[in-house]
TrEMBL record, chain A:
NDH-1 is composed of 14 different subunits. Subunits NuoA, H, J, K, L, M, N constitute the membrane sector of the complex. This is NADH-quinone oxidoreductase subunit H. The keyword Glycoprotein does not apply. Its main location: membrane. The chain crosses the membrane at residues 15-42, 89-110, 122-142, 163-187, 193-215, 249-271, 283-305, 325-344. It comes from Sphingomonas corticis. Belongs to the complex I subunit 1 family. It catalyses: a quinone + NADH + 5 H(+)(in) = a quinol + NAD(+) + 4 H(+)(out). The gene is nuoH. Keywords: Cell membrane, Membrane, NAD, Oxidoreductase, Quinone, Translocase, Transmembrane, Transmembrane helix, Ubiquinone. InterPro entries: NADH_UbQ_OxRdtase_su1/FPO, NADH_UbQ_OxRdtase_su1_CS.
UniProtKB/TrEMBL annotation, chain B:
It is found in: Cell membrane. Its main location: membrane. NDH-1 shuttles electrons from NADH, via FMN and iron-sulfur (Fe-S) centers, to quinones in the respiratory chain. Couples the redox reaction to proton translocation (for every two electrons transferred, four hydrogen ions are translocated across the cytoplasmic membrane), and thus conserves the redox energy in a proton gradient. Gene3D superfamilies: NADH-ubiquinone/plastoquinone oxidoreductase chain 6, subunit NuoJ. Belongs to the complex I subunit 6 family. Keywords: Cell membrane, Membrane, NAD, Oxidoreductase, Quinone, Transmembrane, Transmembrane helix. The chain crosses the membrane at residues 6-24, 31-50, 56-78, 90-112, 144-165. It is a multi-pass membrane protein. Its EC number is 7.1.1.-. It catalyses: a quinone + NADH + 5 H(+)(in) = a quinol + NAD(+) + 4 H(+)(out). One of its GO terms (molecular function) is oxidoreductase activity. It comes from Sphingomonas corticis. Pfam families: Oxidored_q3 (PF00499). This is NADH-quinone oxidoreductase subunit J.
Length: 348, 203
């Protein structure tokens, strides 16, 4: 698009690039907001169906406009800032969560060549941005100056830091196999496994890591069964307890944007991203973005399914799973994968 | 043009937030200013083309180290008055350290300007085509392999040392046996009884 503004409109390169980037950001962020609204509806419907309930069915046809009605409701509410709160940080915290949930989308490839920022450290950028996500929660917990949010913030910080370690090692295995940190490169490296199938998860060596990554991504987004940060039986609403109105809605949006992002990462890193599942020419006639969306929706269904069926973990079980199971397993897998690669590609 | 604007914004924010780290009264605010400084320093790294170092700075310092700082500072009950009390006492030594640091930087700059340093001895700049992850990885795992691994061992020793120093066995602790918890079956733990009216249940 930079070329279009430079040649057709006749802008200098700097401004052409600037305009093209702004438009690219809007093209990703605005549909994402719509997707978040619809995915909240889908989550509630799936959850209701599994509990043999109807779910939202009043606002609009099939209740499709429920999220918009909720959005309007919180928008019209009064923003309440507790007197004991640290005002600046209290209002900054939801903005951080929401922004961080959006910026990672810059490196997600939607189709070959269709990516906002095709940087060669794409995966590290994802890790860096997701490691910022914890600040929104810690700051909310601390600045609320209230007990439940503070406990929740401490839980969240410990949980996210623990599972980031496992996620880091899983990503190292993937990067070694693909030989690049660039997300488009990783997707392309999954093409034609055994000559007919696309996706690292079909490789028996990397399949266990895809499971570890799926479970860790549940923990990283604080979805059930790892939603201890907002365990209502112990902590009221966790770090969001003191929030109301739009500041609460920003957490809501950020949380679901993060969930969609984690579904996208699962799809992109292990299940071939925008590639069709089989390496068969007619399937490539379908645009890559359709395949990507289908995979995202599949993983979102899995997330909802788990939320509807699995009981919440105890906190010590959560920590044990992160540090005593996933960390040694993924660390061992890094050695295993690098050993296999040395044997296969370099030779002893 | 855009690079220059970006550089001045990043540099200004680094300097301001560095100053605020020292000046702010609340230690939690200090840590947050420090995080802002780290983050903008990462922006500067991106501008000079060291995107790998920039991402590492964010992942390691912002994502891990600063979270731990924040954790500790939030949990500690810090007495601000006693922190302020030492200001006059440590002012002299602080000033000496600051002067020494500035002097060292100046000496470094002047020595570089004076010439006489053989340019071929400098670390070779990386080809523009090679991503700097590849370049750093290649150097670390070939030429500096032993130094790199030695650094790893130093960290390992430091970690084990910290654990050995702080770990103490408490008597009378009871541990969970996870395998037993997992292997527990409903029929071992529960009993289905139908007591007669007025009889109750034998436990």
């Amino acid at each position: 698009m930079t070329d279009f503004f430079e040649t057709s409109v006749g802008l200098p390169y700097g401004w052409a690039w600037f305009l093209a980037t702004i438009i690219g950001i809007l093209v990703i962020a605005l549909p994402l907001m719509l997707a978040v609204a619809m995915i909240i509806y889908a989550d509630r419907k799936i959850w209701a169906a599994m509990a043999l309930r109807r779910g939202p069915n009043v606002v609009g046809p099939f209740g499709l406009l429920q999220s918009f009605a909720d959005g309007l409701k919180v928008f019209l509410q009064e923003t309440i800032v507790p007197t004991a709160a640290n005002k600046g940080l209290f209002l900054l915290a939801p903005i951080i969560t929401f922004t961080v949930a959006l910026i990672v989308w810059a490196v997600v490839p939607f189709q070959p060549e269709v990516v906002l920022a095709d940087i060669n450290v794409g995966l590290l950028y994802v890790l860096a941005a997701s490691s910022l996500g914890v600040y929104g929660i810690i700051l909310a917990g601390w600045s609320s100056n209230s007990k439940y949010p503070f406990f929740s913030a401490i839980r969240a910080a410990a949980q996210m830091v623990s599972y980031e370690v496992a996620i880091g090692f899983v990503l190292i295995s993937i990067v070694m196999w693909a030989g690049t940190f660039n997300l488009t490169g990783i997707v392309e490296a999954q093409k034609g496994l055994y000559g007919f199938i696309n996706g690292f998860a079909f490789n028996p060596l990397l399949f266990p890591m895809s499971i570890v990554f799926l479970i860790s991504s549940l923990a990283e987004t604080q979805r059930a069964p790892f939603d201890l940060t907002e365990a209502e039986s112990e902590l009221v609403a966790g770090y969001q307890t003191e929030y109301s109105s739009m500041s609460f809605a920003l957490y809501w949006l950020g949380e679901y944007a993060n969930v969609i992002l984690m579904c996208t990462l699962n799809a992109t890193l292990f299940w071939g991203g925008y590639l069709p599942p089989l390496d068969w020419a007619p399937l490539y006639a379908v645009p890559g973005i359709i395949w990507l969306f289908a995979k995202i929706l599949f993983f979102f269904f899995v997330f909802s399914w788990i939320k509807a069926t699995v009981p919440r973990y105890r906190y010590d079980q959560l920590m044990r799973l992160g540090w005593k199971v996933f960390l040694p397993l993924s660390l061992f897998w890094v050695f295993l994968v690098s050993g296999v690669l040395m044997f296969m590609r370099v030779g002893i | 043009m855009i690079q220059a604007i970006a550089f001045y914004i990043f540099a200004l924010v680094v300097l301001l937030s560095g100053a605020m780290t020292i000046a702010s009264r609340n230690p939690v605010h200090s840590v947050l200013w420090l995080i802002l400084a780290f983050f903008n320093a990462a922006g500067l790294m991106v501008l000079v083309g060291a995107e790998f170092i920039a991402m590492l700075l964010v992942i390691v310092y912002v994502g891990a180290v600063a979270v731990l700082f924040l954790f500790v500072v939030m949990m500690l009950d810090i007495d601000f008055a006693s922190l302020r009390a030492g200001f006059v006492r440590y002012f002299g030594i602080g000033l000496v350290l600051a002067v020494a640091l500035v002097a060292e930087i100046l000496i470094g700059v002047f020595a570089w300007d004076a010439g006489g340093i053989e340019l071929s001895r400098r670390a070779a700049p990386v080809d523009a085509g090679v991503p700097n992850i590849t370049a750093v990885g290649y150097l670390l795992y070939t030429r500096y392999l032993f130094i790199f691994e030695a650094a790893g061992f130093v960290l390992l020793v430091a970690m084990i040392g910290a654990i050995v120093l702080t770990h103490r066995e408490r008597s009378g602790s009871r541990y969970q046996n996870i395998a037993r918890q997992v292997a527990r079956r409903p029929q071992d733990a529960t009993r289905n009884v139908r007591p007669e009216i007025g009889q109750g249940v034998q436990l």
